[in-house]
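for the writeup, i need someone to sanity check this before i put it in the appendix. the sequnce is what the collaborator sent (i think, or maybe the updated version? ugh). structure was predicted straight from it, no edits. if anything looks off just tell me and ill rerun, i have time this weekend
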Amino acid sequence: MSGISGWQGHAGDNDAAGRLIGEMAGCLIRGDHERHLAENIQTFSSTAGALAVVPTYGNGCLDCEGEFQAAVNGVVRWQNDVLAGLAAQKNNAAALIEGYRRFGTDVFRLMQGAWSAALLDMEKRETAIAIDRTGINSLCYACGPEGEFIFSTVTDAVKRFPGLKTTISPQSVYNYLYYFVVPSPTSIYDQMNKLEPAQFVKFSNGQVSKGFYWSMPYTTAASGNRDEWKDALWDVLDRSFEKTLSDTDRNQLGAFLSGGLDSSTVAGLMMKHNGGGKTYTIGFHESQFDESGYARLAAEHFKTDHHEYFMEPTDVEKVMENIADIYDEPYGNHSAVAAYYCAKMAKESGVSTLLAGDGGDEIFAGNERYVMMKKIEKYALIPGGLRKYFLEPILELPGMQHVPVVSKARSLARRYATPMPERLYSYSFISGVEPLDIFRPECREGLDTELPLELIRQTYHRHEDTQMLQRMMHMDMQITLADNDLRKVNQMCRLAGVDVHYPFLEDELVEFAASIPVDVMLPGYKLRDFFKFAMKGFLPDETLTKEKHGFGLPFMVWIHRDTKLNELVTDNVSDFKKRGYLENEFLDDVIASCSRAGDPGAGLAWDLAMLEMWLKNHC
């Protein structure tokens, strides 16, 4: 992935501006393995603004024309013949300038693909920035001390701007612990924000305005014929996959293969449309976590050139610091380790581009909680008066929680009483913790414990006129996919030195999925019912019937068994005490949990250890 940095406003004379944009561009190069990219940096600078782009995989460009300067990185498929022609003749940045002249910020509606973009209008002193529809790319921004507007792909570059304060408050730490990532539109720094998928920000006359240039076009249709939808899906799936392959080197192509539904589908489509390709999976010697057999089955079914690597705890120890370093914000999902070793395998065997199955769950109803919430909603079929005045008083009688059938009904009633989307996060460990018990007294004042949930509510209710399943999928497009999974795979592929593409996130396929009625998508309580129906005869039967898993890491087993891993994690949690955010007693209990088999606190220990390692590298 390439990156963009820049600002609108005064930052010294021409020499000072040139040095600064060079430093900001340098922040886009992550690690020694990317040092060679420095020779490809493109920059523009003046006393009133600057831009830089690093075209990591040849897809970044910068252009200047009159009062306009523009930078675009990634793949853009223009939905306008004039702009598409200009992009082919010159570059995407030139097309963006012409499109902005004609349409203003509506130009972003005409851009499909995986991209980020920035445009400066030096005459009007305006800036517009935006990212793609599903958040494959990212941008963050801040306002400077003298009213400047600063932006970049990475927070490290924005921090370089002179006079800009960057602080990490207890609120930012709380947000991170709630999600184990930093959720957009917030950032780890109080002074910065991040763009959400399909969002643009415009800076004009010293003011920031923002909006969404596109939203998921969810259908209001109540029913449909799934045989017809199956045929239509395959038409769109094949067409979309060809678009994905058009941006890759077909001779150096590979795919992640966990053995699950989405990765197996991607592997099969790779063989169908490319006629060849390599697949990569991670295995574990702990049988309850190992899915390599399913991956092997799919590889044999599609006749891929298959590669696998069985991980050990020492693999985690070797790469923890590198993972903490490459992210521009703390990232706590330990499945990143498995993603990295998969990408590393691919790089070492000559692959330049990997295909990933991320996005399938979010557009084709594949997350287990969709079924769970649908079951809870059945409680509403009981008349309200009967529930309130008869059933619920009985369920709350002492001892009812010990009666097998009644206890389930009691749990159902309590879950239903929690409104959506808060109900989805009622299982969260941090949501069940009283912040006054874990944060130090000086950190408690002003701490908004509702903020993480408020971010969820805003996304969930943005499609208020849709059905619950669609609102959940839309929420997960941001919270689960853009903020978490895409950041994981993007950065781990980058750390390994390979490019990555997401066939399920091709724009036509995403819009098609939004048009499928919910009773076709998930008619009962079987996860991925429609997609599995559509894949019958293409995927192995064992793949269609297996339980959902993915590249999960047996971290909870390893930390109790492996002394070095335990020490690495707990030493960093202990070091975090010096930061002054959390009570020492709480952190001591988290450390102790790493020696108690099955204690969920060990998961939090990983998140805190990665936060501490990130702080050591970046602050």
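The longest strand covers residues 68-74. The chain has 26 helices and 19 strands.
thx in advance!!
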